[in-house]
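FORM 12-B: Structure-to-Sequence Request
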């Protein structure tokens, strides 16, 4: 370290993921100690072990080891001369702490507490480009914070803002025209229509709204927005997205009465929805990649008409407790998306298609000559039935060259082995890839293309 250029040492120290490591570096050498005050990024994390220490300070023979979390952070901020990025958070494992384990009047980990925020933002807010705060839900959920008003007043050059696990007021929120990235996650927001978000963050290019409560008829209306991930756990009356520059959208919602999407530049859409009574969208003239997850894929795909721009499609039907007759067919997929080159079928989609094939077969349809690759998650009930289904698909996809098959992990090894051997023997022109899938785990591939 003594022989490295100072700029490189500062870069290394700025990339440390926990300020505790930065503090340790200060006692290693004079060089590291001097350089530690020049870091551009500070990440301050309250771990479970430090939380426990903070609760036993009186019995601790070394009080410095259990110095209050906020005090340590403020000391680090005041002694740093070049900070551009700050992250302060509690470890995820602390999220499992019950309300009974936390005193109601505790605020030692209430990180969006206005008084605490004002103290350190007055010192460094003007120079910050990025702020990330992940609060302690047990202390923050029941009291509203003016964090947004403070940040918008004291951080005029901020580009990226991330706030998690708290209750946010929009009272006093000022315009932040320079802000380009905003993430609000698992929090309550007192902006039921998102009017303040649209008004005060007009330059947003990236917006992530994950599990944001308090919304009734939210509307995103941002002309510069390019990437959006919006996950809604409740059921608002309506959802509207007006974003002429948007190119990538992931939207997860339940049953909004109305869903309006006007995003003419969209090229990548991932939509997870049970159903919408009213679904309005303008033609997606640039859409290339589409992922759909819904209980009624047949109806949802009809909303896209016959889209000739989509090249990559992934579909799935989530598990449901109700008895719902299968409706999804290959014919529907081919009719809706005639120019596909890649198709990925989740376990629910494959099961519906195979069930309808068993009862009706594959109806006459135009072959999918452009389709080059299929990925399928299969649950093999009868090997011969699954093989016959695959055979019917391959006959209609004359130019298909790659097929990746993931077999359910609970299928017996003999059945799986027989299935794999038959596929390789019956269709040698296809390059196969094999693996296993199971609910709640990542797909596991056991072979490459052969």
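FORM 12-B RESPONSE
SEQUENCE OUT:
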């Amino acid at each position: 370290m003594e022989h490295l250029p100072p700029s490189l040492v500062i870069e290394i120290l700025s990339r440390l993921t926990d300020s505790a490591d930065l503090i340790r570096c200060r006692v290693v050498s004079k060089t590291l100690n001097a350089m530690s005050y020049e870091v551009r990024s500070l990440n301050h994390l309250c771990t479970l072990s430090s939380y426990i220490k903070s609760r036993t300070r009186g019995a601790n023979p070394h009080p410095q080891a259990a110095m209050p979390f906020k005090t340590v952070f403020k000391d680090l901020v005041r002694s740093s001369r070049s900070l551009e990025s700050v992250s302060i958070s509690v470890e995820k494992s602390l999220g499992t702490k019950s309300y009974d384990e936390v005193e109601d009047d505790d605020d030692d980990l209430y990180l969006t507490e206005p008084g605490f925020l004002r103290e350190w933002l007055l010192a460094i807010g003007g120079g910050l480009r990025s702020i990330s705060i992940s609060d302690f839900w047990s202390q923050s959920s029941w009291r509203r914070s003016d964090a947004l008003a403070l940040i918008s007043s004291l951080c005029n050059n901020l580009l990226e803002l991330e706030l998690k696990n708290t209750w946010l007021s929009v009272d006093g929120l000022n315009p932040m025209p320079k802000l380009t990235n905003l993430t609000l996650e698992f929090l309550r927001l007192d902006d039921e229509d998102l009017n303040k978000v649209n008004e005060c963050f007009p330059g947003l290019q990236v917006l992530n709204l994950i599990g944001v409560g308090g919304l009734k008829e939210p509307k995103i209306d941002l002309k510069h927005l390019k990437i959006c991930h919006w996950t809604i756990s409740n059921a608002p009356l309506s959802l509207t997205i007006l974003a002429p520059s948007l190119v990538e959208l992931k939207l997860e919602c339940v049953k909004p009465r109305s869903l309006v999407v006007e995003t003419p530049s969209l090229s990548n859409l991932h939509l997870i929805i049970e159903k919408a009574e009213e679904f309005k969208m303008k033609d997606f003239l640039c859409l290339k990649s589409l992922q759909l997850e819904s209980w009624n894929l047949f109806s949802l795909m009809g909303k896209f008409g016959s889209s000739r721009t989509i090249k990559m499609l992934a579909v799935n039907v989530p598990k449901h407790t109700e008895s719902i007759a299968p409706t999804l067919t290959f014919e529907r997929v081919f009719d809706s998306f005639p120019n596909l080159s890649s198709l990925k079928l989740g376990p629910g989609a494959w099961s519906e298609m195979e069930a309808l094939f068993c009862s009706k077969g594959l109806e006459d349809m135009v072959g999918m000559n452009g389709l080059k690759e299929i990925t399928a998650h299969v649950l093999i009930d009868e090997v011969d039935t699954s093989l016959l289904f695959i055979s019917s698909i391959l006959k209609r996809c004359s130019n298909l060259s790659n097929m990746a098959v993931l077999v359910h992990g609970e299928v017996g090894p003999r059945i799986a082995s027989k299935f794999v051997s038959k596929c390789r023997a019956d269709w040698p022109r296809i390059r196969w890839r094999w693996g296993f899938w199971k609910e709640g785990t990542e797909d596991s591939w056991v072979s490459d293309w052969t």
